[in-house]
Amino acid sequence: MSSINPFNLGSVSSNIKFCNRKKEINDLLTHAKNCTNVVLFSPRRLGKTSLVKYVMREIAKEDYLTIYVDLLSIISEKDVTEKFFNAVVREVGGDITRGSFVDKVKKLFTRLYPSIDIAPDGVSVSAKYDRTETFTHLMDDIFVGLNKHLKKNNRKCLIVFDEFQEIVELPESKRTEGVLREYIQNQQDISFFFVGSRRRVLKAMFADSKRAFYRMGFIYAMDNIPEHDFVPFLSTLFKETNKQCPDSIISKIYEFAGGNTYYIQKLSYILWNMIPTGEEANEETLVSAKNELMKSEAPVFQGVFVNMNHGEKKLVRALSEDPALQLYTIDYLAKHGLSAGGVQKSLKSLIDKDIVEKTEKSYRVVDKVFGMWCISSLE
Fold first, then answer.
1. pLDDT in tens, 53-112
2. Which of 186, 199, 374, 378 lies 20 to 30 angstroms, CA to CA, from 136?
3. What is the CA radius of gyration of the chain?
4. Domain ranges in the chain?
5. Which residues touch 77 (CB under 8 Å, ≥6 apart)?
6. How far apart are CA 150 and CA 248, in angstroms?
7. Where does residue 18 rank: exposed (0-12), middle (13-18), buried (19+ CB within 10 A)?
8. CB 56, CB 68: distance < 8 Å
9. If we measure between CA atoms, which residue out of 377, 307, 320, 321 comes closest to residue 349?
């Protein structure tokens, strides 16, 4: 009987094997238990969502209420209201298929109520409310109802706002931030995790003294897992499924991925499928796996690239080929066909989008694999 590929792919899981995230897990659990707010950020695809969902699962074992709100697709305060309310009522209402669900929720909230939709593919809940109600009143209703539930059941709560930085893109963002702060700062039994991938934007929300969320959370940066931890971890997963991957190959997987957890996992997944049971990965297999990964990621990379303007595309290509700290020198500008004004404008935009970052040594493309695709697309 063949083994199952041990490398989880294509879904966010709260029950996956973590490679040495013990410190992060312990830190986040401690903050949640102390009802401390946390601002958690890292580059995309480093496993933030899986990590916080794991923490939610662990703290739920101690009877904490856990609420997860994904704000990635919001375009208005209406979206914030509905996503937040829907996430809250799913947790406080219990089993959505039971008749008692609506009754429980109605006893907690006065301005919002749930609408249950039963379809062939499952049961869903959506928020119903008077559209003339203000965002302030609706947030008040959600927080008052949630606290009623917590007090009645003598529970504490962890709320995760994923991709929280998207709040700044709303037309009424200043008001939205102000209203949310008004209610969040007064919570005694709730810990809030503000999670995001656009690091500069998210950090600015909490580090700028002029912003509503100034110093509202413990700043927590999530870094790459070191190579020396990943090598034995991946090696064990291969061995447990009757396949071998030499440490030298795993080191090359890590290097190719730039330490990015998503690419390490996906490349390992592809490589595992290419190795016959009982046999060992080699250089030739690794090359084939890399090519397969690049091919599978190409549509995503094309979408990112197409959404850049001309100046951003030129600068990303330049930094993919030639990371540098001094971008305004005559030689660098001439070599890559750039202008000082164009670089200045594009650089800020690309950093805000978390496509480019500044390190001690250089400005560089955050996603190393995307950078390699940018170079290969010129060939």
1. 999 999 999 999 999 999 999 999 999 999 999 999 989 876 555 667 777 888 899 999
2. 199
3. 23
4. 22-221, 243-296, 308-376
5. 135, 170, 172, 175, 176
6. 52
7. middle
8. yes
9. 307
pLDDT digits (tens, 9 = 90+) for 308-325: 999 999 999 999 999 999
pLDDT at 94: 67
Mean pLDDT across 103-123: 80
The pair of structure tokens assigned to 260 is 């990015």
Look up the CATH superfamily of 22-221. Answer: P-loop containing nucleotide triphosphate hydrolases (3.40.50.300)
Does 252 score more than 50 pLDDT? yes
Location of structure tokens 């102000």: 178
DSSP string, 90-140: HHHS--TTSTHHHHHHHTT-SSEEEEEEEETTEEEEEEEE-TTS-HHHHHH
DSSP H stretches of helix in the chain:
22-33, 48-60, 77-92, 100-106, 135-153, 173-184, 199-207, 227-240, 247-257, 261-274, 283-306, 310-321, 330-336, 340-352, 368-376
Model confidence, pTM? 0.84
3-state SS track over 56-76: HHHHHCCCCEEEEEECCCCCC
Helix (H, G, I), strand (E, B) or coil at 362: coil
CB 358 within 8 A of CB 351: yes
- Return the bridge partners of 356, or none: 365
What's the CA gap between 128 and 122, in Å, rounded?
19
Three-state SS for 4? Answer: coil
Q: Could you tell me how many residues make up the chain?
A: 379
The CATH number of 308-376 is 1.10.10.10
- b vs e for 231-263, b when ≥16 Cβ sit within 10 Å of the residue's Cβ? bebbbebbeebebebbeebbebbbebbbbbbbb
**C-alpha distances in Å from residue 37, one per residue of 18, 28, 353, 365:** 23, 10, 24, 30
Angstrom distance (rounded) from CA 77 to CA 81: 6
Coil/strand/helix, residue 209: coil
Q: Collapsing DSSP states into helix, strand and coil, what is residue 17?
A: coil
